[in-house]
Amino acid sequence: MGDLFVLAISCIFINNILLAQFLGNCPFLGTSKKMETAVGMSMAVIFVLVMAGLITWIVDVYLLKALNVEYLRTVSFILVIASLVQFVEMFLKKSIPGLYAGLGIFLPLITTNCAVMGVCLINIKEDYTFLQTAVSSFAYAVGFGLALILFAGVRERINIARVPKCLQDTSIGLVTAGIIALTFMSFKGMV
Amino acid sequence: MAQSLAKEFTKGLWAELPPFRLVLGLCPVLAVTKSVENGIGMGVATTFVLIFSNLLVSLLRNIIPSKVRIACYVVIIATFVTIVELLMQAYTYGLFLKLGIFIPLIVVNCIVLGRAEAFASKNSPMLSVADGLGIGLGFTLSLAALGAVREFLGNGTLTIWEGLPVFEMGAGFLPFQFMIEAPGAFVGLGLMLCLMNLIGKK
Q1: Is residue A64 part of a domain?
Q2: Considering only residues 105 to 164 of chain B, which have any Cβ-Cβ distance to chain A shorter than 8 Å?
Q3: A164 within a domain of the structure (yes/no)
Q4: Tens of pLDDT along B44-95?
Q5: Which domain holds residue A118?
Q6: Chain A, nearest residue to B82 by Cα
C-alpha cells in the first residue's frame, strides 16, 4: 500500500508528465488560455488515460508478449487508443449527454495527445503490475490536470498584462511554463 | 513543376518552420534537445517517417474513403515509425536508448499527421515528398539549433555525433545547469520563438 502511495506521489509531482517528462505539451499550450477549457481537458485526460493505460497493459501482456510480437506495440497501442477514444465519445454522447457536452470537443484531441500514449509506454517499460499501472495512469493524469490548471490560472493573468509584442502568446507561455517547471523541480529527491 | 517542387520544399524551412511557425509537435522538441546529437537523431527519424507517410498517403489518396481517413493515416504512420524503431535499434543503438519512448511517440507527433491531412491527402506524390522533406529538414534544423543552445550553455560542448565533441569549453567554464534541466527547455524555446518573431516582423 505504501509503495503505491509513493508511486502516486512521484507520478504526480516528481515525474510530472508535462513539466518533467515533456509529454502532452501541445494541449498544454493549446487549451490553457482559458480556465474552462483547461478543466475540461484535464477531466477528459483523466478519464481516457486510466482506461487506455489498463487496456494497453492487458493487450501487451496477454496478446503481444504471449504471441511474441512485441514489435507491433506501437501500431497496436495507437489503434487501441484511437478506437477507445472514438468509443468513449459515442458512449458518452448516447448515455451521459451532460458529461459529453463538457468533454466532447476535447475527446478527439486526445488521440494525438502524446501523454496518453506516453504513459501507456512508460507503464510497459517499467514492468508495472496491473495495480501499479492503474495507480500510475491515474496519478500521471492527475499530474497533467494539476499542471494544466495551474498554468491556465497564470496565463489568464498574463492575458491582461502588457507583454512586449515579440514575446506575446506562445512565447511568453513557454517562458511561464519554464518557471512553473522550475517550481516542480524542487520536488526532486522528495521520495 | 520544378518551381512548385522547390516552393513546397523551401516553405518548410522558413514560412512554415514546424515548431516555431506552426507550434506543433512540441514534446520531442522540448524533451530530446539536451544535446545537438539527440536533436539531429530525432529530426532525422521524424523526417524519414514524414517523407514515407506523405508518399504513401498521397499515393492512396483516391482509394482511402474520407470517413475513415484519419485511422488509415495513423496506421500508415505507425508502420513507418515501427520501421524506424527497428532500424535504429539495429544500427544506432546508443541513440535509440537515449531517445527512449520518444521514437514510438513519433506516431502521435501532430506534425506528421498534420502534413498527411493538410497536404499529402490533396497533392501529388512528388509534391508530397518535397513537402515532407522540407518540413522534416526544418524540424531537424530547429531541434539542432535548440539543442546547440542548451548543450552549449548547460554543458559547454557541442556534439554532432556520438561522443565526438566538435567544440569544448576550457576547464574554467561553469556550466549553466538550468539549461539542461526541464525548465531550460521551456525558457529556451520561448526565447527562440521570441527571436523568430523579432526577425520575422521586419
Answers
A1: yes
A2: 105, 107-110, 113
A3: no
A4: 999 999 999 999 999 999 998 888 888 888 899 999 999 999 999 999 898 8
A5: 37-141
A6: A74
Confirm whether A152 is domain-assigned.
no
B191 contacts on A by Cβ (under 8 Å): 171, 175
pLDDT at B152: 86
Number of structural domains (chain A) is: 1
C-alpha distance from A166 to closest chain B C-alpha (Å): 5
CB contact (8 A) between residue A26 and residue B110: yes
Residues of chain A with C-beta less than 8 angstroms from the C-beta of B183 = 19, 178-179, 181-182, 185
For the stretch A58-105, pLDDT in tens is 999 999 999 988 889 989 998 898 888 888 888 888 888 877 877 766
From the CB of residue B186, how many other CB atoms can be counted at a distance below 10 Å? 24
Nearest to B101 among A26, A121, A179 (CB): A121
Q: What pTM value is reported for the model?
A: 0.87
